Amino acid sequence: MALSRGVRLAAWQLGRSFASMLGLVLVAVIVVLALIGPWIVPYPDDVAGAVRLSGKLQPPSAAHWFGTDEVGNDVLTRTIIGARLSLLVGIGITFAAAAIGVPLGILAGTVGGRVREIIMRLTDLFLSVPGLVLAIALVAALGAGIVNAMIALVLVWWPGYVRLAESKALSIREEAYIEAARVAGAPRLRILWRHVLPNSISPIIVKMSMDIGQAILAVASLGFIGLGAKPPTPEWGAMISIARGYLPDWWWYAIFPGAFIYASVLGFNLLGDGLRDILDPRSNRG
Amino acid sequence: MLVYLLRRIALAGLMLFGLVCLTFAIANVAPSDPAALAAGPDAGRSQIEQVRREYGLDRPLPEQFVRYVGDLVQGEFGRSVATGRSVGRDLARYFPATLELCLVAMAFGMLAGISLGMLSALFKDRWLDHAMRIFAVSGIALPPFWFGLLLQLGFAAWLGWLPTSGRIGVSTDPGDPITGLLLVDSLLRGNGPLFVQCLSYIALPALVLSLPCLASILRVNRSEMVEALRADYITAARAHGVSRWRLVTVHALKNAMLPTLAIIGLRWGWMMSSTVLVETVFDWPGIGLYAVSSAIAGDFKPVMGVTLIIGLNFMLVNLVVDLLYGVLDPRLRHA
Fold first, then answer.
1. Among B26, B137, B306, whose Cβ lies nearest the Cβ of A141?
2. What is the C-alpha separation between B174 and B181, in angstroms, rounded?
């Protein structure tokens, strides 16, 4: 009962804000496209890269809403199919980073001492270089490709979660209910799992929501500079990378995949922003 | 104050050492052969072995590490496989272009971000504030490479107002570098037309680069200003008859500036790493473009050099911000 009231209150708060609703709608559209994309695209053959040179580089029309690319593929089809890859990659990177970072952060915050010192210094080390540059260096060492790009991004993304979880766990450690649980004889692991984690989860959810958007952007960025997904994979960044060579005359080729990146990143950011206002109102900063 | 200063500098030194360890680890722990990387993608087995001996890669790791640190201390970043040139010299040649781009972008981002944040706070919860909020989130969400292409399309290809890419016209001779920053050099020489030309080339890439920074400065400055305008000392100052303009720009802004400063430090590092994308779009001859073209060619040393330089920059700027913080906020010196 209490939960359903809380959920209703949160839904009401979310619905009241135009920006949050816009975010929710954008995210919903991307998720739906990712789920049913393969069944609704007008030209399913173009997904794998069929070649129809007679119809190449045609401007947007009734038959091809987003025009066609340099081998005659329908840009709308490839952009919609790209949603699935981008969403999966964005969610995958974010969850993997959180799965590494959150336990380490909670461990550091609750155990303290030398363990905390080691974890936090390692975290600082990874945070001392801006993420994108570090990711490029890692991809350069591992070799270009979408899987290596994901590995590199997870490796530069987890420290943010350690920082966040550690600071939450530190403040929760001092709370009376933790003291009470300890006095009542609850084992340490149970305290971590049942008391510390649930109480530090809201800022983590907010960060994950925003990070899915940022991870989509990062993967597209690596694709654009040629270190991520390789053509003819229908990845938005890689598509723009090729389309760039056809500017300015064949502008539609670059415009539409980019608009989808923008819409999905914007959606996740607005949604995360709205969630923060509800779940974590005190930390509403930049 | 001196203790604070020394402690902060010692910490930066430690971080720098950590950064060196990190790049060494990437080069050696990664499941790839550093000798094969250094020899380039087309090298045969005997060439790889030769490179391995030449670079001392057949030595034990600790020995290699000492040698790596020793080289770095002397400013030796190794050699590019693709061009055979010294990476250190390449970095010195490309860095001023990146620095110039980032400085212009940061100046614009600060100016616009602080003023728009102030406006947003003054019109809190009115339509201007809502519009600014959406603008700020958009600024962070816009893919820089795509936004750059849009600007090229609009301002260069369709309107023809600004050049598409590059740092300076192909037929223009910028003269021998004085500072390496073309805008400054042209001013020092009193060359007005060259200054205008450089400005027209830097405008679009700087705008793209500044947008995320502008957006986050806007947001932080807005929330800090809202907080500051509510404070008791503002009420007190107003009761003393301080003018509204002075109240906002002097009393409130000064107190809102501290967190804004921290964001600027953080954003400088991110800006340097976004140059990788922006320089690629605009063919801007800086270290970002250098890193990308090297990474694609499988040329490893330049990428490591750029990583080190950007990491070093990030650290230095954060050190300066922390020290400024100590100067501006006396409470921190004793923390």
1. B26
2. 10
Beta bridge partners of B79: B86
- H or E segment at A274? helix A252-279
- Closest among A126, A210, A110 to A165, alpha carbons compared: A110
Closest CA to A192 of A118, A127, A112, A110: A110
Chain A residues in contact with B300 by the CB 8 A cut-off are 140-141
What amino acid is encoded at B154 in this protein? G
Nearest C-alpha neighbor of A128 from the set B137, B288, B265: B265
A-B contacts at Cβ under 8 angstroms: 160
Best residue of A20, A129, A157, A209 to probe chain B, by most B CBs closer than 10 Å: A129
A136 vs B157, B303, B314: nearest CB: B303
State the Cα–Cα distance between residues B18 and A129, nearest whole angstrom: 10
Distance from CA of A140 to the nearest CA of B (A): 5
The Cα of A38 is separated from the nearest Cα of chain B by a number of Å equal to: 25
Residue A286 pLDDT level (bands cut at 50, 70, 90): very low
Beta bridge pairs of residue B5: none
Report helix, strand and coil shares of chain A as percent, to nearest 5: 80, 0, 20
Q: Is the peptide bond before B212 cis (omega within 30 degrees of 0)?
A: no
Tokens found for residue A16: 């009241």
* Cβ of residue B135 closer than 8 Å to a chain A Cβ: no
**Shortest alpha-carbon distance between residue A227 and chain B (Å):** 7
Q: How far apart are CA A182 and CA B158, in angstroms?
A: 69
For B159, which residue in chain A has the nearest alpha carbon?
A248
Interface residue of A21, A121, A128, A151 to substitute, partner B, most B CBs within 10 Å: A128
SS3 A5: helix
Environment class of B56 (CB within 10 Å of its CB; exposed 0-12, middle 13-18, buried 19+): exposed
Calculate the CA dihedral of residues B121, B211, A270, A27 and round it to 10 degrees. 160
Task: Note the pLDDT tens digit of each residue in B257-271.
Answer: 888 888 888 888 889
CB-based contact B223 A131, cutoff 8 Å: no
Mind telling me how many Å the CA of A134 is from chain B's nearest CA?
Answer: 7
A147 in contact with B, Cβ within 8 Å: no
Chain B residue numbers with beta carbons less than 8 Å from the beta carbon of A137 are 23, 26, 303-304, 307
Q: What is the mean pLDDT of residues B153-167?
A: 85
- DSSP percent split of chain B into helix, strand, coil, nearest 5: 75, 0, 20
| Residue B31 per-residue DSSP state | S
Q: Are residues B220 and B117 in contact, defined by beta-carbon separation less than 8 angstroms?
A: yes
- pTM (two decimals): 0.86
pLDDT band of A285, cuts 50, 70, 90: very low
Closest chain A residue to B300, measured at CA = A140
Q: Which residue, among B14, B95, B145, would best test binding to A if mutated, counting the most A CBs under 10 Å from its CB?
A: B145
The vertex-B102 CA angle with B100 and B108, nearest 5°, equals 105
**Per-residue tokens: B250:** 């002097």
Nearest C-alpha in A relative to B164? A248
Judged by DSSP in three states, B86 sits in strand
ipTM greater than 0.90 = no
Q: Is residue A208 within 8 Å of A98, Cβ to Cβ?
A: yes
* Residue from A225, A243, B294 nearest A217 by CA: A225
Burial of A245 (0-12, 13-18, 19+ CB in 10 A): exposed
